[in-house]
Amino acid sequence: MFEEQGSLRCDYLPGCLYKIWQDANEFCFTTDAVFLGNFPHLVTKAKALELGCGTGAVSMLLASRGAAHVTAVDCNANVTKLLRRSAAANGLEDRLTVVDGDIRDYKALLRPESMDLVAANPPYRNSGNVRRIGTAACHELTATLEDFFKAAAFAVRYRGRFALVQLPDRFAESMQLAFKYGLQPKRLQWVHSAADKPAWIFLMEMVKGGSRGLEVLPPLIMYDKDGCYTEQVKKYYATELPQ
Which CATH number is 3-237 given? Predict the structure, then answer.
């Protein structure tokens, strides 16, 4: 973090050092967004879409990786305002379009089969204790997991990709929804906090109209025995902060 304005804070986005404005009263990006932003394959001159973008960490990471244009959609005007501020701070106004809207209205917001890649970090919880901060970002109050699959399947082109991060206890549901909406799972990676701990999230990439065949990648382990980031994770945080 390098600047604060009340509850607002301006951080550096790991790996690319884009400035990202966030609000402590909203849900701020975490490592799962960093992993998702670096996970999917990007074709040359890719048109990408992030559903439920929040303050746009995934969108900006995709832009930093070479996406020609990224569209970011969220129903929370507080975070989309911050994303527009971040885009301006990083000179991304021509490559990052921010759309205010509910992804359940995807047919009105998006063009069919217009995207090479869709990425989403949907709310993880559909039950349990409710967070007081970032409630809608963590709990299915405005859109369900199926709503994200519907919107992704609508917006992504044939043979385009949909990348998702979710909790292990929603893996079976995610697989069922993928098949329901014609999205063939092609790459899967389980993420563990430590080598001897159960996975806490998974990353999955699907291809619209893809053939059968799933590649299960080696697990991503976050911390070594000393509690430091593993070499796997360090590559996402490798860039030095400016002095």
Answer: 3.40.50.150
